Amino acid sequence: MARSTPRLSPRTVFSRANGDGVRAYFEDHGASRYSFYGYGKVACRDGIDVMLAECPDADNVVLPAYLPYGIVEPFREAGLEPRYYTCDRRLQPDLNRIEELLDSGTLAVMFVHYFGQPQAREDIGAIRELAAEYGAYTIDDNAHAALSTLDGQLLGTFGDIGITSLHKTLPIPNGAALFLDNDDLSGAALARSAVRDRYTKADYRYCGRAFGRSVSRQPVFKQALSTLRWVSARSRRTNGHVHQNDIEEDPREIYESTKIPMSRLSLHVLERTDPIDVIASRRANYRVWDRTIRDLDGIEPVFESLTPGACPQYYPAIVEAPDDLGTLSGTAKPWPPLPYEVRGDETFATENDLSTRLHTLPVHQGLGTDEMEVLVCLAND
Ligand SMILES: Cc1ncc(COP(=O)(O)O)c(C=O)c1O
């Protein structure tokens, strides 16, 4: 079974900051006002408050129905009614439905770039226009792929506000950003933005788990690792931290568990990451899946092609009979756990169907040619 996210390497941690890193990449691709957070949901919560400061009477928000249930929580916490629009099987928004849902109480319309592939420019433009007609803002949710760009501009910066989840692309314990792209919105109230100024036990535990085998054989680390394992076991017993992959957690609990600052280790890794290498590896691995999947029966790609500038989070494919995935079942994961209001509702037939059939295949930068070959053999089995 392949990991779905990359593992942090000692080489990254112990290398020097190279001056480029993720921040420079953000700034080179049009992100001028942004702040760091532990998680995208909390970044979104601050963004909501920034918009509410201008429109305090707003009472609803227009969201895509094809969404994991946890991301709806910040809107509920802010007292906004979520209204859902549909998409098609290529994950393109239903613009007519968006217009039907908008009214004078709408704070914002959110659009999502799924799995790191940008929505079409025309659709982004149309959503912005519709929102503006009703005096609403737009939220560009680029949680999935922090390094993706469209025509040279960073995804996440196409709305009045936007978010990205760095921890979904990079081997870091947590990390996200809120982008403000409307000069009329004041960033004065970004109350939840924070980066820890020191390393915590959680950072050491994360390294301990990531370095595992390679380092554990070095005598100098043996003592340190045994301490980390002890601390890790004790903390699992005492604080019951919510892991996002667990099945059917309470979305409210998921959200509560994300109200933490970005870790110091995450910042350290951002400063030592070469975005260009990450993008190249992910795109190469995506192409391997694309060649493989297009030759298989009973499984079809979601996207026609890999958009220039996209740094894919996963390779998404629609599986006709998920129970027959065979050897790939440990690697291909269904996505997402839909919001409760959307589940089983006929209006959202496409979303409900996709949430059982759409599976994600890993493309991350930690997968080398050998591992990809093994995965492709499994798929062909
Ligand atoms: C589309 C989308 N937006 C936002 C989020 C929230 O991101 P985070 O896990 O960083 O809070 C997720 C999480 O999976 C997501 O899939």
TrEMBL record:
Transmembrane segments: none annotated. It is an enzyme of class 2 (transferase). Keywords: Aminotransferase, Pyridoxal phosphate, Transferase. It comes from the Archaea. Its EC number is 2.6.1.87. InterPro entries: DegT/StrS_aminotransferase, PyrdxlP-dep_Trfase, PyrdxlP-dep_Trfase_major. GO terms for biological process: polysaccharide biosynthetic process. One of its GO terms (molecular function) is pyridoxal phosphate binding. Signal peptide: none annotated. Belongs to the DegT/DnrJ/EryC1 family. This is UDP-4-amino-4-deoxy-L-arabinose--oxoglutarate aminotransferase.
